[in-house]
Write a structure and sequence with these properties.
The chain has 510 residues and is an alpha/beta fold. Helix content is 47%, strand content 9%.
Length: 510
Amino acid sequence: MTQALYRKYRPKGWDAVIGQDHVVQTLTNSIKADRVGHAYLFAGPRGTGKTTVARLLAKAVNCLNEDPAQRPCNACENCKAVNENRFMDMIEIDAASNNGVDDVRDLREKINFSPSQGKYKVYVVDEVHMLSSGAFNALLKTLEEPPPHAIFVLATTEIHKIPATVLSRCQRHEFRRVPVDEIVANLKHIVAAENLAADDEALTLIARQSAGGMRDAQSLLDQLSSTGTKITLALAQTVLGTATSKTVLDIISSILDHQPAHGLETIHRALDSGADPRSLARQIVEYLRGLMLIQMGNIDQVEATREVKVQMDAHAKSFNTSDVLRMMKIFNNAATDLRGGWQPSLSIELALAEVLDAPTESSQIAAPVRTQPKPVPVSRTESKPEVKSDASVSDNPIINSGDIIKSWKQLAASLPKSQANLSALLNSVKMIDIQGKTLVLGLASDVLVSKIDKPDQIEAIQKLIKDNFNVELSVRCIVTNAKGKIPANVAQDGMVAAAIQHGGEIVDME
């Protein structure tokens, strides 16, 4: 069976440890001075070298070389035994599967036995934060007064879960994420040693995708090398799921051209072919991040093929920075949103609808402006004609819309999980008004209106209002244009409303 690259190239000496010089220096100095502690705590992100350094420490304290500065020497019998995983006095314990009080008691019973091969018995407890509170309490006395031949190394990725009583009994070392350039240098070394063919751009992408974890980077390289072809940027993007697909480009183009129908069709075509909606949202976010980097003058940091960079450069010039930032936030929320429930596509559909809606001054639900029933001049820009019309007076409301507005989020949250779809749509409402016995809901686009304006949805909203406010209302859904919300005293189906829905703005009310 082929050995994994991260195991094959695990450091066997202190000088091979990458990115953790501050830890290595402290430990090597303590070994040279014969001042090794009895309990250590190694904390930091996964794949940054915690277990590797623990093994080096176990090897160094049991090394038979007479010069402490040369330990571990990797030449004596004890060093060879550790390298070959047959050193009986280094005991690795997985706290995730041995996390009970009985497990710790069993360890305490065995710890008093003298070492079999070396000078010290070294206990490496991985993911120590997984121990139960009872197990931690059982471990405390042993950590405080261990036998002179025992050394504990506790490793964790979640140091905040370690009790303070345990922290105070250990020498604490914080492991850092490995810098990208150091990961790339290590990958280049492995590529040369393994006679692989890889582009520098692909190795940089691997390093960045590993998020500072050396083991993750080496595992990704191992995965890509199994394809048997040259590791190019395009191959790395495809395998790692970061490639800019035609779907992403089509969605961005539909936003730029303000074509919601084409955008939804593109999304549904991708989902029907098996794409995951949250994965698609993440790809869109990554593409938008590239546009942001280009706009900020950092095109070299964009991992994309030459052809895609040309398209990205064109899109970066077409959107302003605020638009890109807004779209990134919206699609990023969709990538982590679970509100879709039984309708997985809902979150990304809502994201597209929200993106196509121009940004507003406030994200709060707005109540429409009320004025006296007088002529309302409406205008858009200098090139578009002014529209005049008489506004019709709305009937006196049977309930104050402000009361519903204040409770709207709580109403949406009160719906059961089986109505998660409706709850998400209610959270997308931008304007609420009561006109006589009618609840008017304003949404950002025709897409959202078509999704909420269904008999079962309307009936559920009416029941929600009835149960909470003891009034019976009919429900009407309209498109509320972000550049000019339709006031309550304007006929919702009249000329003024039509002008506003097509981009007009109310500039004066008399």
